[in-house]
Write a structure and sequence with these properties.
By secondary structure, the protein is an alpha+beta fold. It has eleven helices and ten strands. The strands form three sheets. It has a four-stranded antiparallel sheet, covered by helices on one side. A four-stranded antiparallel sheet has the order 5-8-10-9, sandwiched between helices.
Amino acid sequence: MYDRVWDRIGDFARLAPTPHNTQPFRIVPVGATNADLVVVRERLLPREDHGNLYMACAFGIFATALEHAARFVGRNIAIDVVPRVDLARLHAGARRVLVGRATLSEPGPVDAAETRWTMRIEPRDGLLALFEARRTSRLPYHDRAVLGASTSALAHVAGVYGHRFLAVDDAQVVRRVLRLNVEAIIDNLQIRDEREEIRGWYRYGETPPDGDGLWERPMNQPAWELRSAFATPWLYRVPGFRSFARHRYLRTQRGTRHIGLLCGPFAEWPDLVHAGRMLMAFWLEMAAHDVYMQPMGSMLTNARYADAIARQFAVDDCWLVFRYGYSDVPPRAPRLQSIVERE
């Protein structure tokens, strides 16, 4: 039997985002104050996420969420990340792979100096509300510029972690990147292995309160569009239909004033975990400023489009491209009921 504090921490930490909402990480308590942190092999995306880089980054996001979750329940937590992970074979080995260990302090005052989160604005309604507010928005954005103070705060967060935030507001460049993104999405549909891998993570119908995967309302796409993309991908090669599909998708991008890039070390296990920690802090800072983002993953998992981004912005270490701005509150993606599992 273990201290139920792990359940409370898990309820909070499950709000951490993961690629395609696959939620591959689990907390396995091995005592009242100790737990193993594991990744579940069948929830990886090795065909699309080449080298499992973005899932490794997501573990950094998850580790940061655990730290905040522990503080929320009145504990400090120490997370010992395993020093080496064979990322290239992560999806081909054991069903579960140990990626870290967590140790809780005894109940008592939480040392605020222990936090690695550098956000300089206190959440208005508490930390949990800020985690709830942090969402991906695939809605049209309000046609107004993000405040300069918000941009400066985001650049500060990235810099503290040794990364760079490039904010782009040139209207022509923004339009060019949005078009490039939709072309990448359409072209990636033609890659059979990648298409079939993510097909299983798409969900149709009303979004449930608990679950995983990509649902049509949070995706801001009707079921018929999603189904046709997987059932008849060849149709998107036909010039007339490709143009129609491009037009429909770009309608969801209306009002976008800004494109953002995150650049920095993103190749080895320790750097990937660190990048994930930065991204969680960055995303929460966005939430504190009422700013949303939509990552454009298709462009950087496809070498052709990654090269186009590198040339457009004269960078060779960009690992995330996203549009960002203000929008209506987007639908919440569901999360699994529990990420805590007994041995």
